[in-house]
């Protein structure tokens, strides 16, 4: 898949912008705060229906505007597809494919993007929510129908939790709250689908993750990935909830062979066991919203034990493994690989290894504050970004500056 053209209206710091992209490497260079990452964010939005920097859409709308427009022309071999999304500051977003209105959830069917950014270090070092978000965005790209499952689960979770809070405020105990059973059924049905999909994803990621880590780090540290499920009794360090030590759980990780029926049975048992505690706290205490994706190297949790370089290698490997999965199962060709301000954070060896891996993809988008941070093999097409404006660099300038830092 190739993004041939990107157009923005009232997106972040862009009043209006148009940029042409080509196959192979495309590098956006500019000082920090000029809008490079905004371009990467816009491309990735079609695939993930969200931002890698913020949890809601409002910050992506330019100050003073009610909505932002992102348009992209994609090439899937000889086929061309025009995507458009209207990101609203308030209310639901709108989308079009080749001019016809569609639900935004349809967009990932046409666009596959893997974006790596400095924020991805939080996947391995941050709260469980960062790891769940990584997994769920990849699930949606592999199976777009999962966007509806996740949205429905979140809606039921909010409604069930609101009922628990209301019951707590009124002093109602579990026996007198028969309506909770209805929400339990919905929560179990949707949650089981999500848990099963996540378990399958971890299984599929294991082999490409190990290969990518060895390629990036230059060493085999035996990376492992598995889920710790709250329905099986795992207690994670969820949102400062007084759980276990960083990177660990108080119960074994889930078996990747767990069937949907078994998951549903465990879910119901866990809800029954936690009902009194849930009413006391006004919270839903079990379900995929409280699970954690465990990452280990050398049989130790990455979070809390891995060095800075090892943590970077694991985060990079997760994204590269994601790209390999999408490449393997997609009819759209390679996903677009975006490396957002990444090379400045890596040592020379990791830069070189990452560049070699990235150069194998049909299209790569790189952002950098300093041109010299970008390895030579990724400097084929250079575009300068300045204060929300796209400035194509003349070929003579690119040639003259190859191998030198551009002190913007």
**CATH homologous superfamily placement of the domain at 1-112 and 331-408:** P-loop containing nucleotide triphosphate hydrolases
Classify the oligomer. Answer: single chain
Give the overall form: globular
Low-confidence stretches: 239-252, 394-408
Largest sheet: 6 strands, antiparallel
**Alpha plus pi helix count:** 10
Record field, number of beta strands: 15
Q: State the helical fraction.
A: 25-40%
Radius of gyration, Cα only, in angstroms? Answer: 22 Å
CATH topology of the domain at 1-112 and 331-408: Rossmann fold
Mean pLDDT: 88
Give the helix/strand class: alpha/beta
Instruction: Using the coordinates above, name the CATH class of the domain at 1-112 and 331-408.
Output: Alpha Beta
Corresponding CATH architecture of the domain at 1-112 and 331-408? 3-Layer(aba) Sandwich
N- and C-termini, Cα separation: 31 Å
**Strand order in the largest sheet:** 2-1-4-5-6-7
SSE order: EEEHEEEEEHHHHEHEEHHEHEEEH
Descriptive tags:
10 helices; SOS response; disordered C terminus; alpha/beta; 6-stranded mixed beta sheet; DNA-binding_RecF; nucleotide-binding; 408 residues; DNA replication and repair protein RecF; globular; Rossmann fold; DNA replication
């Amino acid at each position: 898949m190739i993004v041939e053209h990107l157009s923005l209206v009232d997106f972040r710091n862009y009043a209006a912008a148009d940029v042409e992209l080509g196959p192979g490497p495309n590098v956006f260079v500019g000082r920090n705060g000029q809008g490079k990452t905004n371009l990467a964010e816009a491309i990735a939005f079609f695939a993930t229906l969200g931002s890698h920097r913020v949890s809601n859409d409002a910050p992506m709308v330019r100050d003073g505007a009610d909505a932002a427009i992102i348009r992209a022309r994609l090439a899937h071999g000889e086929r061309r597809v025009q995507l458009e999304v209207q990101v609203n500051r308030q209310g639901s977003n709108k989308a079009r494919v080749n001019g016809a209105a569609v639900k935004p959830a349809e967009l990932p069917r046409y666009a596959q993007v893997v974006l790596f950014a400095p924020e991805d270090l939080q996947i391995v070092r941050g709260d469980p929510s960062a790891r769940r978000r990584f997994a769920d965005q990849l699930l949606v790209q592999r199976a777009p129908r999962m966007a509806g499952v996740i949205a429905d689960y979140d809606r039921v979770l909010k409604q069930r939790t609101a009922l628990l809070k209301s019951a707590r405020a009124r002093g109602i105990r579990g026996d007198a709250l028969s309506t909770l059973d209805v929400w339990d059924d919905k929560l179990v049905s949707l949650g089981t689908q999500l848990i099963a999909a996540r378990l399958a994803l971890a299984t599929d990621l294991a082999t490409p993750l190990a290969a990518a880590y060895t390629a990036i780090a230059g060493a085999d540290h035996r990376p492992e990935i598995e889920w710790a499920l709250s329905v099986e009794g795992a207690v994670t360090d969820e949102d400062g909830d007084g759980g276990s030590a960083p990177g660990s759980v108080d119960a074994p990780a889930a078996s990747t062979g767990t069937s949907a029926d078994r998951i549903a049975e465990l879910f119901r048992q866990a809800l029954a066991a936690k009902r009194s505690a849930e009413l006391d706290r006004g919270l839903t205490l079990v379900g995929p919203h409280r699970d954690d994706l465990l990452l280990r190297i050398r049989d130790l949790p990455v979070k809390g034990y891995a060095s800075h370089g090892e943590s970077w290698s694991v985060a990079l490997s997760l994204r590269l493994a994601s790209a390999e999965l999408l490449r393997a199962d997609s009819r759209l060709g390679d996903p677009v690989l975006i490396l957002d301000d990444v090379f400045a954070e890596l040592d020379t060896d990791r830069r070189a290894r990452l560049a070699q891996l990235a150069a194998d993809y049909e299209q790569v988008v790189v952002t950098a504050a300093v041109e010299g941070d970008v390895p030579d093999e990724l400097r084929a097409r250079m575009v300068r970004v300045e204060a929300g404006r796209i400035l194509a660099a003349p070929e003579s300038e690119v040639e003259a500056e190859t191998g030198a830092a551009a002190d913007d």
